[in-house]
Amino acid sequence: MFNLSPGKDSQASHIAAIDLGSNSFHMIVARWDNDQLVLLDRLREPVRLGFGLQEDGSLSDDARERAMACLERFGECLRAYPSRSVRIVGTKTLRSISDSRQFLADAEKRLGHPVEIISGDEEARLIYLGVAHCIAPDKGKRILMDIGGASTEVILGEGMKPLLKESLNMGCVAITKKFFMDGKVTEKLVTKALIACLQELEPVNEGFLALGWNEVLGASGSIKAVAKVCAAQGWSDGTISLDSLEKILHAYLKHGSLDLTMDGLSSDRQPVFLGGVIVLTALFEALEFDRMTAADWALREGLLFDVKGRLENRDIRQASVDALAQRFHVNMDKARAVEKTALNLLTQVSGSWSLTADDASKLLGWAARLYQVGLDIAHSDYHKHSAYVVQHVDLAGFSRVEQTQLSALVLAHRRRFPTRQFPLDNTDLLRLAILLRLAAIFHRGGARENLPTLKLAATAKQLQLKLPGKWMDKHPLTIADLETEQRYLGDIGYALQVGEH
């Protein structure tokens, strides 16, 4: 999440990541030693958030209480950490609840850090990143899956790069909740659950099979639990096969209920273990796996590597922005010119407007690179098309809130200010929008190289823009645009004065 106002962030030797999953909440703390990740602490609590998700999208009181109690404990460990060293994400259940804004606000109070809701596509990218750093890729492609509480991510990649990602609506909590809530296990219910998973896989399995792979990996709780059971039962060294999955299913059918105890199965995993086994069995059948190796790392570790990249100015979000601009044939000469002008204006007012040099400049710069993407769709109202694309396309590295902020800036870069769609209560974002609008005015005719020296001063809602008098005389259209902008900014309570220097 963008931190637009300056805080007391300092360089930290430790970094932390929290994964607010549908089954469990995880926290991991690490430090870097000779460019190697050294894990210092892990905490896991089976919150079962997904069990509290109601049909109307609300979250039950008991699930919310379990979640907040857990976050209170996590927060005690994190309060001394600077925000840039911590990343906290929510996945499928938080993507689904209707009151996510209130949940996030309550969570942030307890954690002392912002919480992001990430898309299924971003979740898959981070999982692949974590596993790729855990098990070094061999030559050729590898396929990886992660069975969570409410969703399952399937990723096919090569080296460190994911090539095909899918987030599927099935998970250990979701299957348990739908088919086994009374605790009974019958052949009919197992068959129904398996068919439901195969139906979820049906639209995507051909795409994966067409690409092929040399290695099959699994990550996270359900798959690691199956691997432990396989090893404890003496079926393998922990390698998972379809035969071992069928043995587990047979044991459940013979026992007749979810309270089956097995060597290698922990008590807190027991209530959702069968659901995970059924999802994994469907994956084996649909994608024709022979064997699978369980990886120790997944989403949490991927988050740590992502945080490290951002701290070292290797931010995947920059590559995502540039790729989107290229995809929609943005005039990059003009985009870079607008970016340069906007960042120049930001430098002049960042102190008086209390804007950070880092996150504010990133967000403003990326908006400058993307505000033209809608031109590839239609020239009329292109800013609306641009905003829609930026809001809804999959942008690797971005959370939902970040894409919403970026989309708002793109939408607000021209014409009357979109007061109904723009979060006017977000003063920092509003001020960045004003800077983008001013920069766009000076490049309306193209990527001008002979811009005058722009001097901008700001105090609260007052702006003073000063230009050379001779330049103003030679550019009446730009001056007319600035006069129009004075009226537009006046509509939202800001005053722009334009004069000579």
Helix content: 40-55%
**Could you describe the largest sheet, including whether it forms a barrel?**
6 strands, mixed
Low-confidence stretches: none
Q: Can you count the beta strands?
A: 14
Helix-and-strand structural type: alpha/beta
Describe this structure in words.
The chain is α/β, with parallel strands linked by helices. The protein starts with 13 loop residues before the first strand and ends with a strand. The protein has a 6-stranded mixed beta sheet, sandwiched between helices. Strands 3-2-1-4-5 form a 5-stranded mixed beta sheet, sandwiched between helices. Strands 12-13-14 form a 3-stranded mixed beta sheet. The chain has 19 helices and 14 strands.
Task: Describe this protein with a few key phrases.
48% helix, 501 residues, Nucleotidyltransferase, domain 5, hydrolase, Ppx_GppA_C, five-stranded mixed beta sheet, six-stranded mixed beta sheet, 19 helices, 14 strands, PyroPPase_GppA_Ppx, Hypothetical protein af1432, alpha/beta, exopolyphosphatase activity, 3 domains
